[in-house]
Amino acid sequence: MTYDVAVWRHAGSPTDEEAAAEYERRCNQSEQRWEADALEPACPELVELIRRMRAEFPQQEPIWEGPADGDLASQADGEFIYITMSWDGGPDVVRFIAGIARSLGLVVYDPQDEAVLS
């Protein structure tokens, strides 16, 4: 079992329903770009979020899933990233992400619970 969150740049605080619609739109857009090999580089806010995640959770075995080289930013598509985390460390990482996201102008959405976390 995993913890999954989607994070994207967004001004303000969307409702759960607004975030669900935006999540679906961004997932579809990202999938199309991935298939076309046209993903955009991570925006500065996501790069900073990932930098802080690595500083807070510097384990040898990363809690979040990603490429073998550990470059989670390469999984982003511009202003959007979907992060999958292990069951063991996921809750701590989710709380951390939700706690700092707003200060970075990011929304954190839990697609499993269909709820905004920040």
Can you characterise this structure?
The chain has 118 residues and is an alpha+beta fold. It has one domain. 38% of the residues lie in helices and 19% in strands. It has three helices and four strands, in the order E-H-H-E-H-E-E. A four-stranded antiparallel β-sheet has the order 2-1-3-4, with helices on both faces. The longest helix has 20 residues. The radius of gyration is 13 Å and the shape is globular. The two termini are 23 Å apart. The relative contact order is 0.28. The model has no long low-confidence stretch (mean pLDDT 87).
Write the layout of secondary structure elements.
Layout: E1 2-9, H1 16-35, H2 44-56, E2 80-86, H3 90-101, E3 106-110, E4 115-116
Antiparallel strand pairs: 1-2, 1-3, 3-4
Question: Mean pLDDT, rounded to whole units?
Answer: 87
Using only C-alpha atoms, the radius of gyration works out to 13 Å
User: Could you say which overall geometry the principal axes of the C-alpha atoms support?
Assistant: globular
| Straight-line N-to-C gap | 23 Å
Q: Identify low-pLDDT runs.
A: none
Strand order of the main beta sheet, please? 2-1-3-4
Total number of helices: 3
Strand content: 15-25%
Question: Helical residue percent?
Answer: 25-40%
Q: Please give the number of β-strands.
A: 4
Order of helices and strands: EHHEHEE
Tell me the structural class.
Answer: alpha+beta
